[in-house]
Amino acid sequence: MRFSKYHALGNDYLVLDPDDADLPSEREIRVICHRNFGLGSDGILYGPLPSERAAFGLRILNPDGSEAEKSGNGLRIFAKYLFETDRAGTDPFTVETPGGVVSCQVHQNDGRIEVEMGRVSFHSDQIPVAGPPREVLDEEIDVAGTMHRYSAATIGNPHCVLVMDGISSELAHRLGAALETHPNFPNRTNVQFLKVLDRANIAVEIWERGAGYTLASGSSSSAAAAVAHRLGHVDDHVTVHMPGGIIQIVIDSDYAIRMTGPATRVGEMVFDRAALAVDLA
User: Fold this and answer.
1) pLDDT at 108 over 90
2) Which range of residues forms the domain containing residue 130?
């Protein structure tokens, strides 16, 4: 199988074109994405696929074999792949994911890629979050016997945002898995540990559903910025600082999100099917 590898601020994906291979099985995905036994990545982007609602369809596979509804970094990478393979130009174009249709635009002059990510909702029925119907904002959550404050959001995929005075990768590693699989989140959740820097800047550490600790995330940046804005901590133009770099977020009055950031091509990789013999169980 031939893959194109890209990263978006250190969040790396393998692009698999359906013209080159069928969609790998869940077990195959786990091996291909493995950092030691496979090619190593935070997931696989499978496309372009036919779509009745958009110019292109895309499926996003996590390294544990599960499927993500949406990925901001994945969409920027996919947009660059489409541009570099002459399927798309510099005009805006649409991509359908299981989390909805988005609009993408590649700016050739400076390498920026813009994605209209859709509208953020904080409502429990849409995220989803257990309990009565409500907006999930600044509630208590018990994580391994310790109480924390959190808000929840969806931008086509679920997010749990904890606003804290101090954040670190160690904190994300320590609490991320417990929050991802917390009973409050019936479909599991992505997790962001957020520190407000000023009215225009936030810092986040990220634990991604199905992937674990991640250097950067576009959907996490979108959700974290929207929560910070909804709680009154920031204005509507937010720079999100992550270990891998920064993403620019613009929040409209209805919480529609425009995300802008880079994507970098790493190279071509060929996976030898003989490597699938490994048992990761």
Assistant:
1) no
2) 119-259
